Amino acid sequence: MSASLCAAVSIVLVHGAFADGSSWSDVIAALQARGCRVTAVQNPLTSLADDVAATRAVVERQPGKVLLVGHSWGGVVVTEAGNLPQVRGLVYLSAMVPDSKESAAGMLERLGAPMEGMAPDSQGRIWLDDPGIYGKVMAADVPASRVHVLAATQQPIAACVFGEAVSRAAWHDKPSWYLMTANDRALPLMVQRRLAEQIRADSVLVQSSHMSLISQPGQVADFIARAAGSLP
């Protein structure tokens, strides 16, 4: 993708649970090297409405058309926030993609992969701050030293968000792309395939854990850049 084409699109990156905007650092560097305009959202992870509001605030600051990119839980966020007219396309990275009037938990139940093993604390937050568990679930192909940093900087997510439904799924109206991760222990590949088919996404499969944006930033940046170059 040429720098001129990339410069015509604003790419907005939306992180998922147990992460923050810095999880996109390597992807951002790779996209900026291509001349892309890139901004990462900082989701509070306190409710779907709060995360959508944070994402909309970033989208509304961008000049021209926007490509909205969501990883994991961020897929639910961009499915709602993507209804903004400025958003011309959606990219999903091993992401949850509910339908209209559907929650993340409802989507997983429908696809035969109900949420399990995510017990909230007394304040209703779910944490993934143990490096051993983080590595096993999220980042099996990431060096241990980086996993320790990811676990130290993870943000807990409010358990209630997984039951909160989107209003209208933006993928019904916008072109979509889906990057599937073959060695994912957080969101089964079977579920990712079903979702990519459901939204009729242009999809690709990479050999990666759930955290492809950390372990395979070059491939992720290439995929996002190709999507940006394909926007109407």
TrEMBL record:
Keywords from the UniProt entry: Hydrolase, Signal
Signal peptide start-end: 1-19
Highest taxon of the lineage: Bacteria
GO MF annotation, one: hydrolase activity
Entry protein name: Alpha/beta fold hydrolase
Pfam families linked to this entry: Abhydrolase_6
Gene3D superfamilies xrefs: alpha/beta hydrolase
AB hydrolase-1 domain segment(s): 11-222
Originating organism: Duganella radicis
